[in-house]
Design goal:
This protein has 193 residues and is mainly α. It has a single domain, classed as Four Helix Bundle (Hemerythrin (Met), subunit A) (Up-down Bundle), CATH 1.20.120. It has 8 helices and no strands. α3 packs antiparallel against α8 and α6 packs across α8. The chain is globular and about 55 Å long. The chain starts with a helix and ends with a helix.
C-alpha cells in the first residue's frame, strides 16, 4: 500500500486490558480515532476517550521512567557512553513535557512537538518557570533531522547533543526540579476529580 499510495499502513493489535478506562495511552486513543479498526463482531468499537484516569496512569509511568533516567544518565556519563547519556537526557526532558501535556488532555504531540507545545502551554503563561527553556531547547536540538528511512519513534541523539551530553544531563535535572512538583500536584487534582 505504501509504495502505491505513499500512505504507510500499520497493523495494531490491542489487548482487551488496554481498552479498560485508566489504561488508554495517547497513541492508542489517537490511532483508533484516526485509523480504520477491524472489530471481530458486528458491534463497532466504541470511541475511547482519553480520561483523567488515563492521563494519571500515563503520567505516572513517565515519572517512573524519568526517575530511573536520572541514575541511568549518571552511570552512562561516568562510563563515557555519551550517546546513551544524551539520549536518556533528551528523552527524559521530553517525557516530562509529555506528562504535563497529557495531564491537560493534550494527546496529539510527539518528540519535538511535545517540547514546543509544553513551552507554549506552560512556560509562556508562567505556569512552569522559564528556567526550563534551556532544557527544552537542548532537547529539541538533540532530535536529528528525519531523513528517509529514519526510525521516527526512537531516533539517536544528534551529534551536537552527544558532544554536550553532560550539559543535557544537567538540564534534565533542572527540568525534573521545575516540572515534577506541578505534575504530581496535577495528578492529585485529577484523582480527586
Amino acid at each position: 500500500v505504501a509504495r502505491r499510495t505513499g500512505v504507510r499502513v500499520e497493523a495494531w493489535t490491542v489487548a482487551s486490558a488496554d481498552l479498560r478506562q485508566g489504561r488508554h495511552t495517547p497513541m492508542l486513543v489517537d490511532a483508533l480515532a484516526d485509523g480504520v479498526p477491524l472489530w471481530p463482531d458486528s458491534n463497532p468499537l466504541p470511541p475511547l476517550p482519553f480520561t483523567p484516569a488515563d492521563a494519571c496512569f500515563c503520567a505516572g509511568c513517565l515519572l517512573e521512567w524519568v526517575s530511573a533516567g536520572a541514575r541511568a544518565s549518571a552511570r552512562e556519563l561516568a562510563a563515557g557512553r555519551l550517546q546513551r547519556a544524551a539520549q536518556r537526557a533528551r528523552d527524559d526532558i521530553t517525557r516530562l513535557a509529555t506528562a504535563a501535556l497529557l495531564l491537560t488532555g493534550d494527546t496529539r504531540h510527539r518528540q519535538v512537538g511535545s517540547l514546543r507545545r509544553f513551552e507554549q502551554r506552560f512556560v509562556r503563561p508562567r505556569v512552569i518557570s522559564a528556567r526550563v527553556v534551556a532544557a527544552l531547547a537542548w532537547a529539541a536540538s538533540a532530535y536529528p533531522e528525519q531523513g528517509a528511512g529514519a526510525d521516527p519513534r526512537r531516533p539517536p541523539p544528534a551529534p551536537e547533543a552527544v558532544a554536550s551530553a553532560e550539559l543535557g544531563c544537567d538540564l534534565a535535572a533542572i527540568m525534573r526540579r521545575e516540572t515534577v512538583p506541578w505534575i504530581v500536584s496535577r495528578m492529585g487534582e485529577l484523582k480527586n476529580w
